[in-house]
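Follow-up to my post from last week.
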Amino acid sequence: MNYKKAIIKQGITLHKIDTNKFKTNLFAIFLTTKLNRENVTKNALISSILRRGTMNLPSQEEISKKMEEMYGGSFDCGLDKTGNNQVLKFYIETVNDKFIPQTKDDMLKQSLETLLDIVFNPYIENNAFKEEYLAQEKNNIKQLIEGKIDNKSRYALDRCIEEMYKGESYGLYKYGYIEDLEGITARDLYNYYQNLISNCKIDIFVSGIIDDQLDELVKNNENIKQLSERNGEFQKAELNNKKNTEPKEIIEKMDVTQGKLILGLDVNLSNEELKYDALLFNSILGGSANSKLFQNVREKANLAYVASSSYVRFKSNIFIKCGIEIENYKKALEIIKKQIEDMKNGDFTEDDIENSKKGIIASIKTIDDEQDTQITFYFGQELSNVPISINEYIKNVESVNKQNIIDIAKNVSINTIYFLRN
Amino acid sequence: MQIIENLKVKEKLYIEKLENGLTVLIIPKPGLLKKYIIWGTNYGSNDSTFIVPGEKEETVVPEGVAHFLEHKMFEQESGINSLDTLTALGVEANAYTTNDHTAYLYSCTDNFYEALDEFMDYVQHPYFTDENVEKEKGIIGQEIMMYDDYPEWQVYLNTMKAMYHNNPVKIDITGTIETISKIDKDILYKCYNTFYNPSNMAMVICGDFEPEKILQEVKNRLVKKSANGEIKRIYPDEPETIVKDKIEQKMEVSQSLYSIGIKDVVADEKEKVKRHIAIEILLNVLFGKSSKFYQELYSDGTIFGTPSIDYEFTNKYAHAIISGQSNYPEKVYEKFKAEAEKTISNGLNKDDFERIKKKIYGLYVKEYNDVEDISKMFLADYFKGINSFEYLEQIDLVNIDYTNQIAKELFNSNKMVLSLIKNK
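User reply:
Got it. Predicted complex:
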């Protein structure tokens, strides 16, 4: 495996991951822009309308046929909220020529060109997106926003984040807002799109068996030639220095069988290096089957099937998730709070630390064996304040000690308790 | 060891059936750090009536035992849970239960052999007590309730209930709070002793291994047990007809969920892989992303996401499912039926067929990217009597005439059901 970066133009970066571990080549283009209330819905619409067609393949049907022709190439797009950034993600995955009966196709070139075409050469009529496509995609986004309630666990987490970050960009829903949709015209959206691709940070990833011509292929691509240099500003990861306030408690009702409990915690850090300590803290608290939450909420009290926590590096928050019997709300909450207190008091062992390190390191080591995880990791480094390699990452995890974790625990506070019940 | 090579994906499979009846499948992946092992028993939620080898009487156990057993296997006499021991080694351990098999697994980069000690030890040493069985009822109860809140799971299960009169595929893998309340340690031991015999089990290992060496390591850790006789499994007779053509449930959802089920006949042993491939091609031509069906329903706002297409089968049942979300699910169903009718009379378009065949080939190749996907696939296929490479070989044999013939057999309007979850 060999990872290299090349600056195509200022603000446009090509990331090359040369690896022969996979049967496929994976291509990704990420457009990163600041997340704000004004543009969140437009970005969602852009990500959705670009799937509809290009000047060369003017309909979704033609894009799909092209992908199928390329031995089940898959085209996919997504929208992520990464800290205070909104990231529009576009992927094409195709089988490598080595595993295809006739090898005259040059799948790498075709895949890359198709993906660039989808993102940078959309189907345009009269200087605007096609009216019909826009109307359909507005409807699509509307359904996505309304569909928020369908996955109750996910909904509870989204609601907790919304409450924690009320009035701030991270509290925004990534698919935007229904009330914004109507006012967006096909021309406005196209103008906005042109502005977006002229200013946003662009990252192009290619992972697989790469030939030497890749840099040239990208540089000489007509779509890339059209793009100008840019600052490509984005918001870096935060350390989360919030004042300790009384935890907010929010209880809402919906038609659920099981209660969904979410706790949003602030992890205040004085510098970036402490994120590895926070990672260890989270792992011992709720990151694995050995964690305090799993052991105490599930195995000892038998209150839940799911009892875990995860650390959001970009915002330095921890989210605790539990699915419980509604009447057990107080009991579960008490046990969870006790686990956080115990962490502050250093009530965990050297073994807990060692075991957590092993788990984290094992998952870091497998990054290069999973093609999409690999891209996500390198993109995370790209947006981070202190980009590091996988080996440095492992070293940082290894160097965390017990006192470091207790220091983190002392800077952890419950921000919001959210409970979804019937 | 028997070695089977596939030149298309350039992978090799090593198979050995040990003296005690255990089958070990090894797929070496030189250069990868990630290692994966999965050990399964051919015993799932469908096996609730059986005759223990050597006995005469039928044994009937409550619904949800296979899954309950899976949860309890981690418990050890020492009081230390094996899941904790494995996690402490930095390996990622898990287990799952399906209709026809139960599997235990872990993936790791380091400590593979230390983990193998614990892994093979716990699967071979059950420890059930009244107390530890009781406590699990609370945890599984929450798992059941979690699934009750998943509309996708409910719409699926209802499809099974509409299609099957008696086949246990229609019951929930976890059982219900009521059925699991009847489970005790004696039932668990009886099922363990019957189904966790090596002759009823298979192991798949994938990663950077020397096949002979890893096989020896596995043998060294096997507890002496001899192969037992045949387990007679008793499944109720299942008529070819469906139960009802429509089933509806209300939940709090943004738009309706639909699932169209088509009850299929169980294919002949020799033909099952070929039939499966043909049906995958057929359904993808008709309802996939480039299909008229999808394009038209997308354009008029009836559906947004592409429908999921699945074909599931064992030697006791077979069905196809097309599912998704829509505000006008009845319209989706009408259009589905119209497409099916049209295909019966006109057959598939040649270009569409060839294009989708390429797509399906590519999807099969992609299965070989990840040690986890490979291992799970070989295990699940093994219990169906299939070597996963067969899909890559037999796709060449599937032509348009054969697929058109299968379409005529599959699309029988008397065997289609519509399951809906509507908003309250």
